[in-house]
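Narrative progress, year one. The postdoctoral researcher (J.K.) led the effort to move from monomer predictions toward full complexes, under supervision of the PI. The following entry was the first complex the group processed end to end, covering 937 residues in total.
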Amino acid sequence: MSTVAAALAPTASINRKEKAVAASLVEMCTVRLGSTLFGVPITHILEIVGAARPQPVPLAPVFVGGLVHYRGDVLTTVSLRQLLNMPPKEGRQDLLVLESAGGIFGLLVDSVGEVLTVSSSDHEPNPSILDERRRVLFAGAYKLKDTLLVMLDPEQLEPMRLSAARAA
Amino acid sequence: MDELTREFLIESQEGLDRMERCLTDLEERPQDAGLIGDIFRSVHTIKGTTGFLGFKRLEKLAHAGENLLGLVREGKLIANREVITGLLQLLDGLRSILKTIEAEDAEGEGEDVVLIGRLEELQLPAQAEVKQLAHAKASAHGSSAAPPAINPAEIKPKQPSAAAPAPEPAEDTQKTTASPSASTEPASGAAPSTSSEAENDPARQRTPIAGTAAESTLRVDVTLLNRMMNLVGELVLTRNQVLQATSADPNMTLLSRRLDMVTADLRESVMKARMQPVSNIFSKMPRIVRDLSQSLGRRVRLQVEGQDTELDKSLLEAIKDPLTHAVRNSLDHGIELPDARLAAGKNPEGILKLRAAQEGSHVIIEVSDDGAGINVDRVRQKAIERGLITADRASHLAERELLQLIFLPGFSTAAAVTNVSGRGVGMDVVRTNVEKIGGKVEIDSRTGKGTTLRMRIPLTLAIIPALIVRSVNQSFALPQGALSELVHIPPEQAASAIEWIENAPLYRLRGKLLPLVFLDRLLMPGVEHKVATERDNFIAVLDPDGRRFGLVVDGLADPEEIVVKPLSAVLKGIGLFSGATVLGNADLALILDPGSIAMKAGIAMREEGLVQAVESEVEADSAKGLEYLLVEAAGRQAAVPLTEVLRIEQLPVSRIEYIGYRPVLNFEGQLLPVEDSGGVLAAVQDNPKAQIIVVVCREGNRHVGIAVSHVLDVAAGGDLFEAGTAQRTSGVTLLKNRVTGVVDLGGVAPLPAGEQASAEWSQSVEAMA
């Protein structure tokens, strides 16, 4: 985990520097879920695991995608599909290992794409017609040339926070 | 906080811990110069370093203590009880300031005038007593009364013992540090000894010894060790996969085998690094015993055994509270007041024994006292009073079962609530804490003789033996601690073997109904599951804290030693799983928590459950008690000591021949007298084809046969005591909670004698009233 963090550190500092300038650039890892393109800030990503096989947990909250084994620890994963009430996908899924203030967890997505550099000038906040649940999970969208990149907020995706939100 | 201060804090804590141990020892051996020297040095080191670091308050207090200790060391003052109490107060004062420094990086505002005053006051009698002392000690200590000129020849041989490495128990110090004296001289110059000690010859000799110990050890953060443990676990799994992948390639076999060995060694070393001797917690006990026995007016001697037994660091932390509680209990409820002890014909000084020993993959920790024991009648009465058990039920419980009632929440027999114990939140906490870490607690008590509390603690928390079971197409790990037996019911038998009351499934386990929980239905409610008659059923009989039930799973895999990984809070919330683990085939498995499953399934801790739990404990004890063969003859039960049983023969009654009226058996060419006081032979006399069973036993140097109708079981017998006299009864034993007669083999008359002797079949009676 430290290797990834170290590798990402320079970019993060560049980001901070550039924020001072008018329009800063941010690096996003794109993930695909159905037909939507989502983005996760790479500063939160520890590792990307292709073709993860999470172990299901009976009686777990519906958004839990199962358990995965990650560097000696057992990680709880959040299934983005189940979280957004989408039908389950057959076959391989990719896993992002994310670090949030609440701890490390996994995020299951259909597939992981590339790393894009986007400019904050292209960012727009969540539209008001989104349902309330998605308004919490999404952090606006970047207007790309031919599509929208929907931002995910890793802090909001943390399992403990999700279960608290569900309870409320 | 800077590195220097942190170092100072850790060192001072260790010094104070050592001082505490020495102080309690000093009470027994007030003249021991080694102990006094050690205590003096602890305080002196703190004083020296604080001055350097600028902690004025600490320095002042330590200085006051040092003055007092100086007098004691020079023999001007006897380390009597008042002085030791004062020094212990000093210790507490120093500790609390150290704690403040640790928390706030400053020594705080408090004033220590009272304590310093007290310490100065204690120095006063020194002048008065000095003469008296000189006389008293003249023979033993020679010139010790002459102030600063300590006779080096006197002190030298004792001093090195004082500088023993910290964790060593004070009693052992004399032996442990005999050797290093030769190499001391060259290093002494560099040693950080302070001025007042440096001019003292023995002091210069001591410091290097402490130095060598420090050079070979290193302080390591526990979190780092945990991380290492995790990584080693990971390595083990990777190794397993490498082994599988390379098994076909002969070039790789040698390499992978080497990887295998190195990994195993590494894992062992990391586990070892986490182990600490139990003396780390045992060493806190002398102080507790001293303080408590003084405030309770008891006279107690503490005996400690097996201090070097090692236990995982986290487990050691976990048993600290239960152990302290058990010690308090022994002092408050167990050991009587000196007068009462004298009246009972005992030594007025009670003995409290702490013992630790390793047994296989467990560590046994015992707290035993030679006090009054637990009054079983009071336990019964209290339990009924507090509604923990019905009067009717209580009258059927045996003594041993009644004793286990003290582990129920809300139980206390103390007549009055003291500030030490008696609030009824005691033994159940001990039990909960110990069970939380996978251990077990038992209590054993003899009225008038004392009580023993025994804790069985697994060696490490991280790795536990578990049975891998299958359900809902997944593997689950079932910790073996709660597992008592497995029953297999093939599909064709399921219809008759599993009985139902409405929708509650039950299984008859040796005649008793066992509530069943289907794991698949529990884990996936609202989904159609295969009915029991269409699949294999395995019943895992579990009894977590007295809740006995059978968990039905679809399949069993091998037992495995699993590495427990914690679950995230979200999944802990489900309540059925205590963790997760990675299996040998790299699959993940959730670890089932039998206690929570029982609760979730609504299995109450009923009285029956309690009794059964007790029974299983009795069974577990069987290794210790004498084992008996339980037999039945003409409707009555009796016990035959198992050690005497040679073989059990089933034969037609016609094989029995008679010499006069005595039945004999021609057994392998020898004539065996057959005992039939149970009337088995008489009952089947008219039917020559009837089968009878003859238990062939050894009696002295001859063999005898006993005719019985059935052999029922093998069980461990418990001793019975005659009410009031505490005298062990003979001829009967407690078998499966029934008072059962033991066949008197010696009573079987030898053959030549024509007289028929009788081995009385003692009638089985209902369990004690």
